[in-house]
Amino acid sequence: MDQLKSQCESLEKQNTEIMGEKEILSKNNDLLEQKIANLEKANEDWNSKHAELKKKKRQATKQVEEMQQKLETMEQTLAQMKTDMEQANKALKQTSEQLEMEKGNSVAKAQTSRELQQQLQEKI
Q1: Angle, alpha carbons 15-21-23 (nearest 5°)
Q2: CA separation for the pair 41, 67 (Å, rounded)
Q3: In what ranges is there compositional bias, type Polar residues (predicted)?
Q4: How far apart are CA 16 and CA 24, in angstroms?
Q5: What is the CA radius of gyration of the chain?
Q6: Count of beta carbons in the 10 Å neighbourhood of residue 96
Q7: Per-residue confidence of the chain (124 residues) as pLDDT tens digits?
Q8: Considering the entire predicted model, what is its pTM?
Q9: Rounded CA gap, 6 and 24, in Å?
Q10: Residue 110: C-alpha distances to residues 50, 53, 80 (Å)
Q11: Which of 123, 121, 100, 119 is nearest to 111 (CA)?
Q12: What is the C-alpha to C-alpha distance for residues 69 and 60, in angstroms, rounded to an integer?
């Protein structure tokens, strides 16, 4: 009987220890579940921020591409304007030279006309 009582006390002691360990394991399990939940939340937050940053990067890339396209168009327009102005300047220079030549011819004709008039008057 004493042996049974001793075994019973030993089993109760083991049971108490096991229950204590079970309680500790349960608390640790709760802590692990909380940490897992926190990690999942942090992962969701990170994924959300990552997706937002990717979206902003795509928008910024699109804006840069649009600006580059506008810049290329402006450069082409400026190059065409430069060519047009150079051609207009060349045409203006040619016209000025032609007008100078015509002015010289006009002056020479007027001089010749006066000389002829004078000769005519002298003959009359």
Answers
A1: 100
A2: 39
A3: 108-124
A4: 12
A5: 52
A6: 10
A7: 888 889 999 999 999 999 999 999 999 999 999 999 999 999 999 999 999 999 999 999 999 999 999 999 999 999 999 999 999 999 999 999 999 999 988 988 889 999 889 988 887 7
A8: 0.53
A9: 27
A10: 87, 83, 44
A11: 119
A12: 14
- pLDDT value, residue 123: 79
8's tokens: 């019973």
Encoding tokens for residue 65? Answer: 């591409």
Q: Which tokens is 101 given?
A: 């030549």
Residue with tokens 């006009």: 106
Q: And the tokens for 100?
A: 């100078």
Query: Cα separation of 39 and 21, whole Å?
Result: 26
